[in-house]
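QA checklist item 7 of 12: single-chain prediction sanity check.
[x] sequence parsed
[x] length recorded as 108
[x] structure emitted
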Amino acid sequence: MIQSAKIAVIGDKDSILAFKAVGVEVFSANNVFETNNILRKLAKENYGVIFITEDIAALVPDTLDKLKDRPTPAVIPIPSSQGATGFGMAGIKKDVERAIGVDILFNK
C-alpha cells in the first residue's frame, strides 16, 4: 500500500494560520532551537514537503543544507506575513549555480 506524504508549514503564528484552514499541518517556531527540533522531527516522519517562512529558514541554514541532500522532505522557503526577505531566491540562485556552474538567473 502506497502511503501519501504529508505537508507541513513552519513559521510564526501569523504567517502559518491560513495554512491550517486548508488542511496543512502547522508548526509554530520562533527561534533556532524550536526550528531545528521541528525540522528533525518532520524529516523522520512521512513529510514530503515542508514550507518554512524565510525569516525562520534564515535561522537554520546548516540544517536546511543537510536536508537538501535527502530526497525527502522538500523544504521550500516562503515569504512570511511580513513579506519576502530574499532568502528563498538566494537559495534558488545557489542551487542553480551548483547544478550548472554559472549564475543564469541574475548574471552577477
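[x] summary fact logged: The mean pLDDT is 83.
[ ] second reviewer sign-off
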